[in-house]
Amino acid sequence: MTPEQYDAWYDTPRGQWIGNTEYGLVRSLLALQPGDTVLDVGCGTGWFTRRVADDGAQVVGLDRDAEALVFAGAHSAGCVSYVHGDASALPFADAAFDAVLSITALCFVEQWPRALAEIVRVSRRRFVLGLLNRQSLLWLDKGRHGGNGAYKGAHWHTRAEIGKVLRLLPVCNVRYRYGVFLPSGSKVSRALESSLPRGLPLGSFVAVAGDIGR
What we know:
Blueprint: H1 3-9, H2 13-30, E1 37-41, H3 47-54, E2 58-63, H4 66-74, E3 80-84, E4 97-103, H5 112-122, E5 123-132, H6 137-143, H7 159-166, E6 171-179, H8 187-193, E7 205-212
Parallel strand pairs: 1-2, 1-4, 2-3, 4-5
Antiparallel strand pairs: 5-7, 6-7
């Protein structure tokens, strides 16, 4: 899939609904303040990066896919910059950003616990992760046996394994929110989405937030 094809998926009815649902969860947990500096780890084509910038943050997107970064740079405003880099070895100083986010990127990083430690290291105030949830209908459909389609090779996280890693890091006030419970994007799934509690651990997307407790 080319960067153009990937980004265009968010313009489809299902892609727009999923993207807006996921970003709504992330945005509520980020609790951005005007002028905040934010790092987006594994930014890809910059779809979420641009959303954060639209909310008034100064954003840096990082990804290891140079082709995706070229697309992202060509479709972003001046308040966004992009860096080629590895999530497992972020090229930034400690506490370099007010907040750090990473949306469905650590699912494709083999050493994701190390990448999570790096995210915490460079964050001054808080971090928010968007991860694929193994306890979900989408995992049953797309994630088993190595995954298929866009989910091929993805790691689907459990709350227990996330918590185990976070307990080793200087973080506090960890929160979990869930969304995209019925990922078909049908009218029924969209209607049910708004009525289900965000604490119900069955959504295909889990947003994990924590405050830095150095």
